[in-house]
């Protein structure tokens, strides 16, 4: 995760996510709040549970890996995070930000994940829906290849 972009979460983003948890009838434990704060702080990252565990331990050294796994499953069910499978047997999680639909390019050499969106793909999706009278509810596009650094 070299070149990690750090973003300081604002209180309204944090409170919005906290309310999502509470509105579904779940308690906001200290560990859960620490996980949400870390996800906001590194919102452009795609974490494995182990990577997230290392980051959360920076603010809560006592948190266990099993707590991370349990909470990521819950936050995924609540729609706060999205569970992604880029590689075989390796789930990654990303924070769901409203209006932030995007796709992923994954470097097969270094594992770098590049997010992108495309007007062309959006038009293609609309055309497919129209041509086939199909209502698209969800889709994921993953492209695999070599990033700029690994091409040299």
Explained architecture:
This protein has 6 helices and 5 strands. It has helices at 11-23, 30-41, 49-56, 65-77, 119-132, 148-151; strands at 81-87, 90-95, 103-107, 113-116, 142-145. The longest helix is centred in the C-terminal third of the chain and has 14 residues, at 119-132. Residues 1-7 have low confidence and may be disordered.
Keywords:
single chain; 152 residues; alpha+beta; Arc Repressor Mutant, subunit A; Dna Ligase, domain 1; 2 domains; 3-stranded mixed β-sheet; two-stranded antiparallel ribbon; disordered N terminus
Topology:
Elements: H1 11-23, H2 30-41, H3 49-56, H4 65-77, E1 81-87, E2 90-95, E3 103-107, E4 113-116, H5 119-132, E5 142-145, H6 148-151
Parallel strand pairs: 3-5
Antiparallel strand pairs: 1-2, 3-4
Helix pairs in contact: 1-2, 3-4
Concise overview:
By secondary structure, the protein is α+β, with helices and mostly antiparallel strands. 42% of the residues lie in helices and 17% in strands. The two termini are 19 Å apart.
How far the N terminus sits from the C terminus, by CA atoms, comes to 19 Å
Unreliable spans are 1-7
Indicate the CATH class of the largest domain.
Answer: Mainly Alpha
Query: Total strand count, please?
Result: 5
* Helix proportion range: 40-55%
Can you identify the CATH superfamily of the largest domain?
A: Winged helix-like DNA-binding domain superfamily/Winged helix DNA-binding domain
**DSSP summary: helix tally:** 6
CA-based gyration radius: 17 Å
CATH topology of the largest domain: Arc Repressor Mutant, subunit A
Largest sheet: 3 strands, mixed
The portion of residues forming beta strands comes to 15-25%
| Tally of separate domains | 2
Order of strands in the sheet with the most strands?
4-3-5
Which structural class fits the helix and strand makeup?
alpha+beta
CATH architecture of the largest domain: Orthogonal Bundle
Q: Can you write the helix and strand succession as a string?
A: HHHHEEEEHEH
Structural shape: globular
